[in-house]
């Protein structure tokens, strides 16, 4: 699961720095060994020449007869020893020891990284060629993909039966192969995969054409000839005449497959992540900032609060966690980071979640004074009781790391959730931003269409429950995939029990909305009652 967290990737990077010195030492030792073998070659050549000249005479000499037998035994041992004495094992061990206990990445990790990359490509609408050229949003990086890299990405998609992504990436591999000398991938392999993906996505004529090219390149290919016939037969079944099979090739068809997310939600999630959903000026004009001074301690050290949205209320607490606190928390969490797991509904086993690609850890109040201090501050920030809150959760997102749309609170039907905690539902969420990804990694609310992009040292806060205790469906939210940079967050889930006097329910069961006053701020003079989003023209 290396790809799920940047923290592990850093260890991976560290482990690479010993490779040159260790390899260099190995090469020196090998050169020495080969030199000794070369010396043996010359020794034997000289001896052989001598024997050629002396011929049968040597054999009849008893001294030489003895020497020959001795040589056969001992010199042979020498040769065998020198040829087998490859010291690679020891050097490999040294490299493994330098891995800080993290294992060597596997094909699975590579597949995971490729899938993360494809998610980024979808969400941020990245062009395959630009991405392969190392360009992200027009910014050129120092890294580019060769044909083999594109081939591997496509193969990862293929293994997931995701033919939608196989097509552009195999096509890119083909194009790159044209320019490569020596080529990094096998063109016929690319053609075969691409042809199959074309067929799967409904491009029969293209599949036929590619397979014929494969057959032309390698008439002995074990499947090419059969596949040509198979595609021809399929076209025939569709009523295409033989003479038409290689003509009038229609536009490429390549529909994006459905995902676990419902389509409109996915579309909104991705648009919000790209920051393409504007907020109306009217809605923006109703937002303001204030100093929260409603607790004795805060008179001297007020908290900066910025309202980011009403209905449902969300605020940003600015500068509520320092760089050094962040560093401490990251250090405490790093060794504990583990991939999020969920219970498989069929087998009941714990499996890694795919809706959430990140690694997380929990930090207890007693783990470190910094954790205790942050917990105390959370009380001052939210005016809510922290005794019943969950421990502080730390999360680190890797390449394409994300969290699909979800609710933090338990819904009506989820009667068992949080049962063993005995603290009721999750009334509110605080999300500390402990880093600032360069691109992507936003926290987006798909129902109310708002996007918040992490700013380091700040914390986002929202209530998950309405004033009458019911879950607020408008809080459905997600974490966007990180495109460039690192995303560290920590969250605190605050529970209902203990809030009876701190944040009382409404006076009527219909009272729903949360007030800025609950957070020690001046109530807005008006809250826009219109859509927060500009009308479509
Ligand atoms: O990382 C984010 O932006 C959101 C995380 C989140 O929603 C969660 O952990 O419940
Ligand atoms: Fe969440």
TrEMBL record:
Subcellular location: Endoplasmic reticulum lumen
Cofactor: L-ascorbate
EC number(s) reported in the record: 1.14.11.2
Domain of life: Eukaryota
SUPFAM superfamilies: TPR-like (SSF48452)
One cellular-component annotation, GO: endoplasmic reticulum lumen
Function as written in the Swiss-Prot or TrEMBL entry: Catalyzes the post-translational formation of 4-hydroxyproline in -Xaa-Pro-Gly- sequences in collagens and other proteins.
Assigned protein family: Belongs to the P4HA family.
Protein name stated in the entry: procollagen-proline 4-dioxygenase
């Amino acid at each position: 699961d290396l790809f799920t967290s940047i923290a592990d990737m850093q260890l991976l990077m560290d482990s690479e720095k010993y490779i040159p010195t260790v390899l260099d030492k190995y090469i020196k030792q090998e050169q020495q060994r080969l030199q000794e073998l070369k010396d043996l070659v010359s020794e034997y050549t000289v001896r052989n020449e001598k024997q050629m000249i002396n011929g049968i005479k040597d054999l009849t000499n008893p001294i030489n007869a003895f020497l020959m037998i001795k040589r056969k035994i001992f010199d042979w041992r020498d040769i065998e020893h020198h040829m087998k004495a490859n010291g690679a094992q020891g050097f490999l061990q040294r490299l493994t020891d330098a891995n800080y206990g993290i294992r060597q990445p596997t094909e699975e990790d590579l597949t995971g990284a490729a899938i993360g990359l494809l998610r980024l490509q979808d969400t941020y609408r990245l062009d395959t060629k630009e991405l392969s050229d190392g360009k992200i949003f027009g910014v050129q990086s120092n890294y580019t993909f060769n044909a083999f890299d594109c081939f591997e990405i496509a193969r990862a998609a293929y293994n997931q039966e995701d033919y939608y992504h196989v097509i552009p990436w195999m096509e890119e591999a083909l194009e790159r192969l044209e320019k490569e000398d020596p080529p990094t991938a096998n063109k016929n392999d690319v053609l075969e995969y691409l042809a199959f993906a074309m067929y799967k996505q409904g491009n029969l004529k293209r599949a036929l054409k590619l397979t014929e090219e494969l057959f032309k390149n390698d008439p002995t290919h074990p499947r090419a000839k059969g596949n040509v016939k198979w595609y021809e037969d399929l076209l025939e079944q569709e009523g295409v005449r033989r003479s038409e099979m290689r003509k009038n090739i229609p536009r490429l068809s390549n529909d994006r497959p459905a995902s676990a997310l419902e389509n409109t939600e996915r579309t909104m999630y991705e648009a919000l992540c790209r920051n393409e959903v504007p907020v109306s000026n009217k809605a923006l004009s109703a937002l303001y900032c204030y100093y929260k001074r409603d607790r004795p301690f805060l008179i001297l050290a007020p908290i900066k609060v910025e309202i980011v949205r009403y209905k449902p209320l969300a605020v940003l607490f600015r500068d509520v966690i320092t760089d050094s606190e962040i560093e401490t928390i990251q250090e405490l969490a790093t060794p504990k980071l583990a991939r999020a797991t969920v219970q498989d509904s069929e087998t009941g086993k714990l499996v890694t979640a795919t809706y959430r690609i990140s690694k997380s850890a929990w930090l207890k109040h007693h783990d470190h004074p910094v954790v205790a201090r942050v917990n105390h501050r959370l009380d001052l920030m939210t005016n809510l009781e922290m005794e019943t809150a969950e421990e502080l959760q730390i999360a680190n997102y890797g390449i394409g790391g994300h969290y699909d749309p979800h609710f933090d609170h338990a819904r009506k039907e989820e009667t068992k959730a949080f049962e063993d905690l005995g603290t009721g539902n999750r009334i509110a969420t605080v999300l500390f931003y402990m880093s600032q990804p360069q691109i992507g990694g936003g926290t987006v609310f798909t129902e109310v269409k708002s996007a918040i992009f992490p700013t380091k040292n700040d914390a986002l806060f929202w209530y998950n429950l309405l004033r009458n205790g019911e879950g607020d469906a408008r809080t459905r939210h997600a974490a966007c995939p990180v495109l460039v940079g690192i995303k560290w967050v920590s969250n605190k889930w605050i529970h209902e029990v203990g809030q009876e006097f701190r944040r009382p329910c409404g006076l009527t069961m219909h009272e729903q909305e949360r007030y800025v006053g609950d957070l020690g701020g001046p109530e807005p003079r008006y809250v826009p009652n219109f859509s927060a989003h500009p009308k479509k023209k």
